[in-house]
């Protein structure tokens, strides 16, 4: 075999997603297709995004496009904004600028875990956790969310922890369920991780995956576990709130509550590891643009209208759907319980939604609300008719 064992495992874990992604790229070229698969934009970019990039593409110094790691100006803006959002005093030196959340998560795995360590991940959860862990020679350990509510099951996490557990990954607001976890969840998880760390004689870290942190509905409060469990690192991506996943910009932040000695050790490793994982720093122009990009956001009022339109139509027709508290996804159970058959029936009508098999949930489906309202209005009759067809065949 030409490939390494970890490359083989990573490929196997991502194959179903990669195949689906490639097929959706082809489908998306059809202007009549109603594609609700990935969180891609279906309208032109926020005006401030290209304006900021264009403004900072003009060089002001001879080293404008020289090698860049984490630019101090970007770190300072992020630390200030993050401190205001989370109520913790972040130091600019504890911010590593990265190529989106992908880069931040890769950096966290390299920073905190050794080959063969176990990493607890949520199920259903983002479908790239497992492939990334396999590629890093780490062991993904899936833990089911609570059925029906999709709450974080803290007791299940506690049962999954072993002597090899090094990191627990949490995601709030959660992809694909749209859940935003309350303060009480983080307090309970903190107690579990503290007790387990002492029992195992080895610190268990928490990676808080927060790319949807600013995409929340109905005034729902966001609390980061970093405020409750000191041994937390946070990853973030601007691609979600800007609705521009192709503009690769994010960061990894060390919680200011990490004890000073350990935080200094981690801080000193951010640059060399950022280099070692493949120069994981964002392009210079993206970093120069951070002050402007921090002030931009997709239209939450319009996104709320889209959520209410789609959720209301499906729930009113008898679909079992979770009302999202955050993210731009709608998560539901397929009529009849066979998500692939449901998605196939929709595809015959030119409507494309993501089957839950990509999230290890073959009975569910995910709809991206980044589509236009026109697309939503055109798709709803098909969604209702497919459900009605199933009812007639039962």
Automatic annotation (TrEMBL):
Coiled coil: none annotated. Keywords: Aminotransferase, Transferase. One of its GO terms (molecular function) is pyridoxal phosphate binding. Pfam families: Aminotran_1_2 (PF00155). InterPro entries: Aminotransferase_I/II_large, NHTrfase_class1_PyrdxlP-BS, PyrdxlP-dep_Trfase, PyrdxlP-dep_Trfase_major, PyrdxlP-dep_Trfase_small. It is an enzyme of class 2 (transferase). Its cofactor is pyridoxal 5'-phosphate. Residues 72-380 form the Aminotransferase class I/classII large domain. Its EC number is 2.6.1.-. Belongs to the class-I pyridoxal-phosphate-dependent aminotransferase family. This is Aminotransferase. It comes from Microbacterium trichothecenolyticum (Aureobacterium trichothecenolyticum).
């Amino acid at each position: 075999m030409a490939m390494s064992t970890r490359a083989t495992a990573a490929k196997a874990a991502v194959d179903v997603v990669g195949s689906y992604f490639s097929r959706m790229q082809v489908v998306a070229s059809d202007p009549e297709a109603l594609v609700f698969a990935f969180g891609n934009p279906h309208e032109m970019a926020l005006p401030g995004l290209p304006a900021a990039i264009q403004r900072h593409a003009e060089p002001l110094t001879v080293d404008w496009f020289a090698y860049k790691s984490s630019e101090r100006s970007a770190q300072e803006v992020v630390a200030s904004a993050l401190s205001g959002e989370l109520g913790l005093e972040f130091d600019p030196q504890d911010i590593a600028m990265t190529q989106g959340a992908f880069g931040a998560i890769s950096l966290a795995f390299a920073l905190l875990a050794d080959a063969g360590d176990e990493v607890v991940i949520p199920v259903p959860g983002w479908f790239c956790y497992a492939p990334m862990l396999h590629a890093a020679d780490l062991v993904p350990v899936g833990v089911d969310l609570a059925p029906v509510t999709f709450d974080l099951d803290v007791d299940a996490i506690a049962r999954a922890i072993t002597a090899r557990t090094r990191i627990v990954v949490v995601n709030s607001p959660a992809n694909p369920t749209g859940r935003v976890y309350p303060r009480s969840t983080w307090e309970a998880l903190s107690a579990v991780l503290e007790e387990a760390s002492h029992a195992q004689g080895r610190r268990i870290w928490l990676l808080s995956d927060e790319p949807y942190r600013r995409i929340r509905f109905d005034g729902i409060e966001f609390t980061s576990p970093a405020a409750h469990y000191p041994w937390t690192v946070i990853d973030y991506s601007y691609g979600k709130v800007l609705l521009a996943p192709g503009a690769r910009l994010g960061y990894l932040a060390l919680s200011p509550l990490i004890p000073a000695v350990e935080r200094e050790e981690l801080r000193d490793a951010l640059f060399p590891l950022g280099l070692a994982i493949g120069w994981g720093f964002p392009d210079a122009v993206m970093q120069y643009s951070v002050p402007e990009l921090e002030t931009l956001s997709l239209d939450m009022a319009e996104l709320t209208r889209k959520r209410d339109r789609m959720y209301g139509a499906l729930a009113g027709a008898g679909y079992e759907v979770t009302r999202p508290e955050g993210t731009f996804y709608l998560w539901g159970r397929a009529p009849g319980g066979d998500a692939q058959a449901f998605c196939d029936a929709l595809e015959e009508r030119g409507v494309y939604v993501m089957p839950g098999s990509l999230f290890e949930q073959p009975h569910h489906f995910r709809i991206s609300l980044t589509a236009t309202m026109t697309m939503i209005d055109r798709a709803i009759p098909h969604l209702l008719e497919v459900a009605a067809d199933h009812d007639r065949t039962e």
